[in-house]
Amino acid sequence: MPEGERSVAEQSEFTVTFWGVRGSIASPGPATARYGGNTPCLEVRCADHLIILDAGTGIRALGEVLEERVVKGEGALKGDLFLTHTHYDHISGLPFFAPIYDKRNCFRMWEGHLGPDRTLEQIIRQLMSEPLFPVPLNLIAGSCRFTKFQAGETLDIHPGIIVRTAPLNHPNGATGYRIEQGGRSFCYITDTEHVPGRRDERIVELVRNADIMVYDATYSDAEYESHRGWGHSTWQEALRLADAAGVGQVVLFHHDPSHNDTIMDRVADEACRVRTGTLVAAEGMVLTL
Prior knowledge:
Elements: H1 8-11, E1 14-20, E2 41-46, E3 49-53, H2 59-71, E4 78-82, H3 88-91, E5 106-111, H4 120-127, E6 144-148, E7 154-158, E8 161-168, E9 174-181, E10 184-189, H5 201-207, E11 212-216, H6 221-224, H7 235-245, E12 249-253, H8 261-274, E13 279-280, E14 286-288
Parallel strand pairs: 3-4, 4-5, 5-6, 10-11, 11-12, 12-13
Antiparallel strand pairs: 1-2, 1-14, 2-3, 7-8, 8-9, 9-10
């Protein structure tokens, strides 16, 4: 088929790359080598636009790859970084994200959970302050724009790209995201606690008929009983929610740091038997919508 006759879907990519999949604290080592030990970070590519979801320790390796492209002359970086929330495992990689120190680049950093009395800039300033970190926030000020919204809003971030949001049930608040482009949809729902026997209708509506849903599957149903109130969900709840909302494919995410590769293999097998096509997130995994 001639180049000019390709369909719009063929011309505009929509990919998701997993750079960090672990929850609570990084857990590197041989026991977690296959699924990965870095904390949450996803790279989403919608056509020519870069979207980053969370800034856990996985964002460092992403930054190295992005910086290489700049060095090779591919141009300055522009993109949006959406944080689900500002617990340490979701922002601890940000000071090590090399592209934010390059003033040629431009990143909008979004949050919708802090409320009217706190700003993301304040939180990052605390993170990057002595004696916690030796490099002050003002060294990244040239490349970063902090943007506030309220979870539940719909955001028009780029021509043809819509981000829908919803509040999640997590200590200190969190936000779930649905990215839509070219008739395709990807949902990122992590750090949320379900109520057994009852669906969270805000999440159901956010993920309804989505092509892919990444979901907080920190525990199994059996493990959840001793972790009530911790702000996390289960892989079984992910599948029940997907069935209720008509989701296409489920990706289990935010793995408990004590779950080694053997445990994750078992989860993958059991989840696939319950719902065909279910995946367990692993570092380096790339999905195409």
